[in-house]
Amino acid sequence: MTQLTMGKALGAGLRRAMADDDRVIVMGEDVGKLGGVFRITDGLQTEFGAMRVIDTPLAESGIMGTAVGLAFRGYRPVVEIQFDGFVYPAFDQIVCQVAKLHYRTRGNVTMPITIRIPWAGGVGAAEHHSESPEAYFVHTSGLRVVAVSNPQDAYVMLRQAIACDDPVVFFEPKRLYHSKGEVDLDGDIADAAPMGVARVVREGSDVTLLTYGAQVSTALDAALAAEDDGISIEVVDLRSISPVDYTTVTASVRKTGRVVVTHEAAREAGVGAELIASITEKCFHYLESAPVRVTGHDIPYPPAKLEKHHLPDLDRILDAVDRVLDRPNSLSGVQL
Amino acid sequence: MTQLTMGKALGAGLRRAMADDDRVIVMGEDVGKLGGVFRITDGLQTEFGAMRVIDTPLAESGIMGTAVGLAFRGYRPVVEIQFDGFVYPAFDQIVCQVAKLHYRTRGNVTMPITIRIPWAGGVGAAEHHSESPEAYFVHTSGLRVVAVSNPQDAYVMLRQAIACDDPVVFFEPKRLYHSKGEVDLDGDIADAAPMGVARVVREGSDVTLLTYGAQVSTALDAALAAEDDGISIEVVDLRSISPVDYTTVTASVRKTGRVVVTHEAAREAGVGAELIASITEKCFHYLESAPVRVTGHDIPYPPAKLEKHHLPDLDRILDAVDRVLDRPNSLSGVQL
Amino acid sequence: MTHTLNPSVETSTDLDDLARLLTPDGRRISDRQLDPWIEDLDREALRGLYRDMALLRRLDAEGVALQRQGQLGLWAPAQGQEAVQIGTARACRADDFLFPSYRELGVQLVRGAKPADFILAWRGEMHSTYNPYELNTATPQIIIGAQTLHAVGYAMGVQRDGTDQVAVAYFGDGATSQGDVNEAMVFASSFRSPVVFVCSNNQWAISEPVTVQAKYPIAGRAPGFGIPSLRVDGNDVLACLAAMRWALDHARTGKGPVFIEAVTYRMGPHTTSDDPTRYRSADEVEAWRRKDPLTRLEALLRSQDAFDDAFAADVQADADRFTAGMREAALTAVTRPAIEVLDDVYAEPHTGLDEQRTRFAAYLSGFEGEGDAS
Amino acid sequence: MTHTLNPSVETSTDLDDLARLLTPDGRRISDRQLDPWIEDLDREALRGLYRDMALLRRLDAEGVALQRQGQLGLWAPAQGQEAVQIGTARACRADDFLFPSYRELGVQLVRGAKPADFILAWRGEMHSTYNPYELNTATPQIIIGAQTLHAVGYAMGVQRDGTDQVAVAYFGDGATSQGDVNEAMVFASSFRSPVVFVCSNNQWAISEPVTVQAKYPIAGRAPGFGIPSLRVDGNDVLACLAAMRWALDHARTGKGPVFIEAVTYRMGPHTTSDDPTRYRSADEVEAWRRKDPLTRLEALLRSQDAFDDAFAADVQADADRFTAGMREAALTAVTRPAIEVLDDVYAEPHTGLDEQRTRFAAYLSGFEGEGDAS
Ligand SMILES: Cc1ncc(C[n+]2csc(CCOP(=O)(O)OP(=O)(O)O)c2C)c(N)n1
Ligand SMILES: Cc1ncc(C[n+]2csc(CCOP(=O)(O)OP(=O)(O)O)c2C)c(N)n1
Ligand SMILES: [Mg+2]
Ligand SMILES: [Mg+2]
What are the Transketolase-like pyrimidine-binding domain coordinates in residue numbering (chains A, B) (predicted)? Predict the structure, then answer.
C-alpha cells in the first residue's frame, strides 16, 4: 500500500492503463507539457510521447468528436474536460454519438471512451468551475457514470472505466484532489470490486445516507456527529451513479427504513430524485418516513463566497436526518 | 371559438405575439419562406418581413447564442429548434448563458427567450427526430419548461411564454400538430390560467395519473378504459414541468393516495423521478402504494418500427394502474 | 495572408469558377492539374462510372417510389449528386474509411452496400444496416456535421498506427455553418491528419439557399484554416474522381488534410417530406437539369462509341436487379421482436437495463399468443 | 478565391507581418492605411492613452498582489496586453456594446468600471459587478468563445433598430478553435452585421502555444468567412486604436463585420493559479518584454517632450488612488447573506424556488444569533 493523494492516484491509474494497453490515448486541453491544470496527467507526455498524450485545440466538441473517431479506429481515448462547466460544448457529441453509436450500429462499433471531469464545488472557484452536471449524463441512456471519493477507488475505478467497452463519464471531485489515502498499486482490477458496485462505508441501523463523490466525507462527518445523539447512520458511497447498485442500496434501506440522499447538484430531476423514486418503488413497505434530499439549491452555482450556503454540509444533513426520524427539525411546523 | 389544429394554433399564437410586441423575433432553420418543416411559422415572414422572421445559418449554437445577443439588445427571440434531437449543439449556450445570465448579472439582464422544440416520438421518424430531452432542461436552474397537449393551450401558453421575462423551453408534441381543438383566439393571456398551473383534465378518485404533452390523450384513453373495470382515474396535465404545480398535484394525490406518472422520456433521472420524489416527500402519509413510472426504456430512441414498444401506451399504463392498486399485473410474482 | 484593410472578399459564389474535365454537353476539356489523375481511365473505367451513376439514379428513384408506396418512412434523394458521390467514392481505397451523411447513397453503393441496406434504415427497422467495419464506411450521419470530427479522429488514429489510410468526411453546404465542421478543420490542420473533407454544395439546405450559410465560395474557407482546397464541378464525375485522387494522395503521403467543394445541385426535394416548390423556382431546377452528370458522361461515351443499346440494356438490367432487391427487402422485412429494443445499448452487462429487461419481458409475456406486442 | 490545387497556405505565423505605427523602440512609422485614422491624436490624447495603459498595468499588478494576500480567489493578469485593450476600447463609442472575456481588464477600465468592479467578482462575492447596460459592456465571459455569438446577436438587434451602434467581440487565440467563434463569423457574414471581432493573440492558451490552434496567421481565417481582417501589432496602442477606428467605421456604415487579430503576448501566468515556467522559456518572455507597449509609448512621448516627471507623478497618483480603491473594496467587502443565493434566478415569481426559499429561510432561522450561516 502506498500513501497517495487522489490526484496522484488518478495519475498512477492513467499511467498504468497506458502501460497495459497501447490503444489508450489521453487527450484534452493542457494535458501535455503542463500535465493538466490539476496536474493529473503530469509526466505522461514525457513518458508516452505526444502521440499518446495529446494537447488538443481549445474546443470540447472537437475533443469529443475526434475521440469518437479514434474509438472507431480501435483506440480507447481518455478525454479530460478541463472543468465540469466546460463539458456542455461537447454535449451533442456525447449524447448523440458517444452514447448512441453502439446502439445505432447494433453492437458493431464500441465506444470505450472515458470522459474524465474534474468536478463540483467547494474550492472557491470562479463561475462555471464548480458545476455538478452528473444528472445530465445519468439521464442519457448508453452512458455509464461513476464518481470517486477516495484515492484507492480513483486508482482502480479509473482503470476499470478505461477497460470498460462502454463510454464512462468519470467524475473526480476537485476538492479531494489533494486528500490522501492508501492505494494498492499492484492489485488486479479484476480482483477489485467492480466499478458498478456501491460500498457501505459505515454501517448503521437508523438511517441510510446515500451519497457519492466528495459528499461521502461530509456524510461520514454527519454520521459521526449523529452518533453523539445516539443516531446510527449507515453511509453508502454509491460509486456508480448510473447504473446504481440497488442490491446494496435496498438492503440498507430495508434495514433502516429511513433514507437521506445528498448531493451538490441541483435538486430538481437530479440523481437524488432518481434514487428516491427507485427506492420508493422497491422498498415502499419498508419506508418509515419520506426519504429526504439534501442538495444544492435549484440555482445556478453561486459566487464562491456564497457557495457554503449552497453545498450540503453537516448541519443540513443532520437537519434532514432529524426529518426522516420525525424529530424536531428546521421544517417542523413550516407549512409548504 | 375556432376549430384549429395545434400547428395552426401555434402559428396563430406566434402571429399574435408578434403583432402585440414588435420586439418579438422568430428565428431558426427554414422558418422563413418554408414556414418551418412543420409549417408552424407559415406566412409569418410574408407578414412581418425577413427582419423579424429570420432564416438562420444551420448552426444551433449560433442560433441560441445570437438569440442571447438579441435579448441583450432588448428583443424577445422565439427560437425554433427544428427537431428535439438537434437541441444539443445549443446546450452550452442554453445552460451556461440563457439559464444563467439573469443570475449572473443580478437581474440586470433578462433573457426573455422562448425555445420552441417540436418534440417526442410516435411519428415514425428517423433517428434523432423523436427525442424527449425535457429532463435536461428541468434539471437546469434558471429555465422554465412547459409542454402543451392541446390547441388552446398551445395558443395561450406560447403567448405567455413569449411574454414571460424568463427563458422558457416550450415543448410541442409533433404527433399532435395535426390534432384539432377549439381555440379562443380573442382571449387575453392574463385572463387565462397561467402557464405554471396544472390542469385536472379528468377527475377521479382511485389513482392520480400525472403526465404532459401527447401522453395526456393516452392517459385519458387509459382512464376511460379503466372506468370499465370500475377504476376511477384522475388525470392531471402538468402543462408546466418546471416548476411543477404541486398545489394541484398534491391535492389530487392526497385524494387518491395512488400515483402513476407517465412520459416518453427515459426513466432514469427523468421528470417522473422528480415527481415521485417530490410527491413522496409531500404526501408520504397519504400514499397507499408506491408510485409507479411508465416511461420510455433507458435506451436511445429505437428505430421507428420498434417505437411502439418504447412509448408508454394504454396497456402499459393500465398495467401500472393495476400495480398501484395492488391488483394482479405484469410484475406480480416477478422478483427484482 | 498578410495584413490588409481591403481584403478582396468575393461576395457571391461564382458558379463557373470550377475545376472541370467534362463540360455539361459532354466535351472532355483539359485541366493541367487534374488531367494526370485520370490518365489511366480507359473506356471500361468510364463505362463503370456511368454504370454506378445510373444505378444510383435508379435506386434513388426506387427509394422515392417505395416511400410513396408506404414502404419507407422517409427517403433523402441523391438525384443530381451522382457525380460527386460516385467519383469521390470510387477514388478511395477499400481500406480508407468514409463518413457519409444521410444523402450519400452513392457512397454507400460504391462501398458495397446491398439493396437491403438502402431499405431497412429508411424503413425504420434499424438505425443502421451494414457493419461499418465491413464496408469501412460509417453509418450515415444525421446530426449535421458531427461526422466530420469522427473522420478527423479516425485519421488521427491512422497517424498513430503509422499506416496510410485516409479518412473521408462527407457533408453538405449547410453543414459548413456548424461549429463541429469548423472544429474539424482546426483539428485536422493542427494535427496534419490524413483526412479529406468533401463538401457537396448542392445549393440548398432544406429551404435555405447556400447564401444563407456563405456569402462567398465555400472552398475559400479551408485555406484560412491552413487546408488546401479545391472547388470542383460536382456534376462532372471525371473532375470529382481526379480531384479526389489528388486529395487522397495528398493526405496519404503525409501532406495533411484537403478540402473539396463539389458544386452540384439537389434536383429533388430535401426529403420525401419536403415540398421544394415553396422556396425555389422551376427555372432554377431546369437550368441545373442541363448540367446533369449522367447525360454529360453519356455524351462523352457516345462520342467514343462506348455507349450503345447493349450497354444501356446491361446497365438497365443491373439496375432492375438491384431495385428488385430493394423491393424484395421492403416487402419481406420482418420487424424485430419488441424485447430487442433493449439490445445493444451497452457492450457489457448493465444492472439497470437488465432489470428493465426482466420487467419488460414479464410485461410482454402477458401478451403471448395475442401476437400484438412483439 | 479560385479553385486551386496548390493554395499558398503559410504554415507558420510570421510575427513581423503586422500593421504597425509605433516601433518597439518608440519610433512613429507611417502606414498609409492606418495613418488617417489617428490624424486627430494630439499630445494630450497620446498622454491619455499612456495614462490608461499605466493605470491598467498598476491595477493588474494590484490584483495579483491582492490575490497573493488571499483577498481574491483568482486573477487573470492582463500584463503585456495593455495596448490592444486600451487602444481598441478607446476607439469605441460610449453606446457601442462590448463583450469582453475574463482577461480584458483594460476594456472594462475604459468603459468606466470602478475599483470595486475589479475586486468583487474575482473575490467571489458576485459573478458580476457593474450593470452591463450602464457601461454598455457585458459581464466578462468565462466560457471560451460564447460571447462572440452574443456580440453578433446584439449587432443583429442594432440592425433591426436601424441605429448605428457596433458590437465588439473580444476573445483570445485559443478561442478561435471553438465552434462558437466560427459560427459567430458565419452569422455575422451572412447577416452583414455591425460587429468587430477583436482577437487578442497573446501566443498562449494556458499552456498551449497558438500553433496548437492555428498553423497559420489567425487573421487569415476571417476572409474565408467573407470577413475582412487585419493583423495588427497588438503591443502598439496607436495601431490598435487606428485599426479599431477603421473597423468600427466599416461596421457602423453598413459594410459588415471586421476581424482584427492583435498580435501580443501574455507576460504573466494564465491566472494566478498557473505556473508558466512549466511550458515556456524565460527567453521567450524576455524577447517580448522588449516589445512592451508602455515603454514604446513612453519613448514616443519623451521624443515629443510630452513625458516628464510631473506627468509621471500624476499618472502614479491616479494609479495610487485607483489601487487604493481596490484594496479598500477588498477589505471592506461584505459577503451577502445566505438567503441571497436564491435571488435573481428568475425575473418572475417561481413556485419551485419560492418553496425552496421558505425552507431555506426556516433552516437559516435556526442559526439566528449564531452569526455563522448568514
Ligand atoms: C444538428 C442538426 N440540425 C438540424 C438538422 C435538420 N436538417 C437535416 S438536413 C438539413 C439541411 C442540411 O443541408 P446540407 O448540409 O446542405 O445537406 P443536404 O441536405 O443539402 O445534403 C437540416 C437543417 C439536423 N439533421 N441536424
Ligand atoms: C469552454 C471552455 N473551455 C475551457 C476553458 C478553460 N480555459 C480558460 S482560459 C483558457 C485558455 C484561453 O486561451 P485564449 O482564448 O487564448 O485566451 P487567453 O487566456 O490567452 O486570454 C482555457 C482553456 C473555458 N474557460 N471555457
Ligand atoms: Mg445542401
Ligand atoms: Mg491566448
Answer: 4-179
